[in-house]
Amino acid sequence: MKAVLFDCDGTIADSCGVICATMRLAFEAHGLPAPEDAATRGIIGLSLDEAIRRLHPVAEPPLVATLVDGYRQAFRIQRADPDFREHLFPGMKALVQDLAARDDVFVGLVTGKSRRGVASICEAHGLTDAFLAVRTADDCPSKPHPAMVEECCTVLGVAPRDALVVGDSIFDMEMARAAGAAALGVAWGTHEPAPLLASGAYAVAETVTGLVESVDRWLADPILQPAMRQAAPAL
What we know:
Strand 6, helix 10 and strand 7 (about 230) form a beta-alpha-beta unit. Helix 1 (about 15-30) packs across helix 4 and helix 3 crosses helix 4. About 45% of the residues lie in helices and about 10% in strands. It has a seven-stranded parallel sheet with strand order 3-2-1-4-5-6-7, sandwiched between helices. By secondary structure, the chain is an alpha/beta fold.
């Protein structure tokens, strides 16, 4: 058996805009200059405390903790709005469900979101049962530490060398490489194809169709050589 481990924000969920807006609210609520959206997009994928430390590198630990709490409070307020919804990228729900229905692969989730955040988005989109192993910022050190991949593989009974990490950030690629897993990038999230490839992706899918083809290719032949790194077809 093999495992495909998905990142959430920027890979499955089209949540970058919400994250940027929430980060602005958290900083402004404490009288701090709001980070530029480009800076916030660059840290999506990290655990929240690590993300805030990178956005405000001179912040002392008490301020980091305050900003973490402020971000969570701002997000809870938004989520309480009846009209609020974290959207998925078109085609990603079907892709995850199709993989979960196969008998030759396990599907997992490795994300910097909290357990509560994962439960909310999975319940909203009917994906709770699709992921047989889930590791979040509440469970493991921040990416690119390999613990999320390693622990999911342990739960699934799969060696990391038989796992594929699908993500939109260099942190996902670095995490996969540190764990000894394969890495596949997607181009619709936070980071461009070039840094994804440089960070260890064997391919970068430009579309969901291209992602399906790249996942199928890996499942058929998971031993992919560096020379095979290329952008997946934009179909």
